[in-house]
Amino acid sequence: MKLRLAFGPRTADTSGFDMGLEKACVAESLVRSASRLLEQRNDRDIIHHVCEALTLATPHVRLAWTWFGPVNTPSIVPQVVVGPASAYAHKLEIDRGFLTEIGPAFRTLAGKRVEPFNVSRMSLYRPWREAASMHDIRSAVSLPLASTVNADRGLLALYADVPDYFEQVGIGLFEALADMFSSVLSVAAERTLLREAAFSDALTGLLNRHAVDVVARPILRSSPLDAPAAVLMIDIDHFKRVNDDHGHPCGDRLLCDIADLLRRELRKGDSVLRWGGEEFLVCLAGADIALATRVAHKVLDAVARHRHPRPDGVLMTATVSIGVADLKIGEAFITTVERADAALYQAKRQGRNQVCGANDAG
């Protein structure tokens, strides 16, 4: 744990602690927060808003922080931090190998219930002594968060300035808050999956043409100082004949084989999209027209050498035609794609199984 001290804390008056009033304040803050969840788009914004509403509703909740991530994480660093004692959490790092404080944290991530506990200026653990003396913290609880969509887990940590605060107010209220955050975590994970699905071709697993703006943005050229870039438009030759002679499942298998081959033959940073039907678009960052043409010939040869199994077990060959175009300065990406497409059809007209550059097609 890494901690820097914050000086001059507010000292809360806990002598007149009213448990009934406190329950009402906490419950009201949760209900009001829940009613405004639909106004927020970002999961971190939602969680920050709810935690802030809780710490503003009662002066006794000194700190609330959350963490989300894989359950096998080596360390926990608070991600959303709210409350008067935020300085404590901002310098907090809980390491899996350091058992004194992470006992509650990592047991919580494992889905085990951790009872609230008290801290004081006399605690054996130095950071707890500092939390008590510098931030008026007297009790704490850690609650598990879990996505129902993926394997991500989370942690909600709450700190109060009254001993046995969470038992007195009722741990059920704070478990309801954790349930709310788990739902936020699940919705965020589901939104990510939907976004990935929108950009992913269901058959081949490649990006689809809806992702074109995402892959194009990094390679657009606005000045001579920008790195060169190029695109390849690839089309499987006589694909309709494959479907007609051997059936659509065979054609689908061929599309997947070509997709896998492109993944293997291209560089790690190159983007491959299934453009539609039997066409693929490849974006080559940092490649001028000469390098892009060499890459195109490498793909052409690799496809021609590959053997694809037919439903009857016989291996068949396939070829592709490829159009190449480099990105011009100030040129719209779709214009580059159109030039590559024109070069592709020139390659088709010249006999297929070949590469044609946009300049050659012009």
CATH superfamily of the largest domain: GAF domain
Quickly give the CATH architecture of the largest domain: 2-Layer Sandwich
Q: Which structural class matches the secondary elements?
A: alpha+beta
Question: Could you describe the largest sheet, including whether it forms a barrel?
Answer: 6 strands, mixed
- How much strand? 15-25%
Poorly predicted runs of 5 or more residues? 1-11
Instruction: Please trace the helix and strand order, writing H or E for each element.
Output: HHEEEHEHEHEEHHEHEHHEEHEEEHEH
End-to-end Cα distance, whole Å, is 65 Å
Number of continuous helical runs: 13
Number of DSSP-assigned strands? 15
Cα-atom radius of gyration = 30 Å
- For the record, what CATH class of the largest domain applies? Alpha Beta
Number of domain modules = 2
Helix fraction? 40-55%
Question: Can I get a quick summary?
Answer:
With 362 residues, the chain is of the alpha+beta class.
How would you portray this structure in words?
The chain is an alpha+beta fold and 362 residues long. It has 2 domains: 19-197, Beta-Lactamase; 207-361, 2-Layer Sandwich (Alpha-Beta Plaits), CATH 3.30.70.270. The protein contains 13 helices and 15 strands. It has helices at residues 19-35, 43-57, 86-90, 99-109, 126-135, 165-169, 171-198, 212-216, 239-246, 248-265, 289-305, 333-349, 358-361, and strands spanning 61-69, 75-76, 80-82, 94-95, 117-118, 139-146, 153-160, 207-208, 229-236, 271-276, 279-285, 308-309, 315-316, 320-326, 355-357. The strands form 4 sheets. The chain has a 6-stranded mixed beta sheet with strand order 8-10-11-9-14-15. The protein has a 5-stranded antiparallel beta sheet with strand order 3-1-7-6-5. A two-stranded antiparallel sheet has the order 2-4. Helix 12 links the parallel strand 14 and strand 15. Helix 1 packs antiparallel against helix 2 (43-57), helix 9 (239-246) packs across helix 10 and helix 10 packs across helix 11. The N and C termini lie far apart (65 Å).
